[in-house]
Amino acid sequence: MSASGRNPTHRSCVPRRRSRIRYGWIGEALPFHRPLRFQNSRGGAVAMGKRRRRYWLLKTEPEEWSWEDQRSNGGVSTWDGVRNRQAVNHMKAMRAGDRCFFYHSGAAARCVVGVVEVVKPWYTIAAGGEDGAVDVRSLGEMRKPVELREIKAEAEADAEAMKGFALLKQPRLSVVPVPEGIWERICEMGGGYGDAAAEEEEEEEEAPPLEEEQDE
């Protein structure tokens, strides 16, 4: 094992654990995020300066780094270990604010289980600039995992709905872009994403006060 805690010969993308929970890597506190009650079209593309938000899909084997690991790590992790040149180029194209499906791969599970947001774009972690990473934080868990077979069935039923989705065209690629329309469709298939506890708290805050009955 290398000093970073990962096997340099292993080719799957495995985020490294960080001890600085909810803090940026230069010391600033990350803003607290309360997930929206239903984040698909309302959490869709927004203008970020001259660049619109883009969407991606990150694959990881749950035995190595699962959604539970991501959440238990304070929601923040470093996504590294990617070697494929095309996947690396996709990561280099990411910007802060971009969102990614968190996808469990492998024989046991192939499904979208949650959503993370890029909080720090590509940076090098080794001399020479070949090895790099992006930092991501969890935004919310899918209310229902969206399995690969469901996505394939959707593509068979409506070829236009999943047209150009690299997950189906290049199934071995660990990082793929997600067109906005496909992003929203998968969010709908999964019932949206968010934190149930945060939603209950939000609903309580938004609930109007009960009026006291007055005796006539």
TrEMBL record:
This is EVE domain-containing protein. Gene3D superfamilies: ph1033 like domains (3.10.590.10). It comes from the Eukaryota. InterPro entries: 5hmC_binding, EVE_domain, PUA-like_sf. Residues 193-216 are annotated as: Disordered. Residues 54-189 form the EVE domain. Residues 197-216 have a biased composition (Acidic residues). Pfam families: EVE. GO terms for cellular component: nucleus.
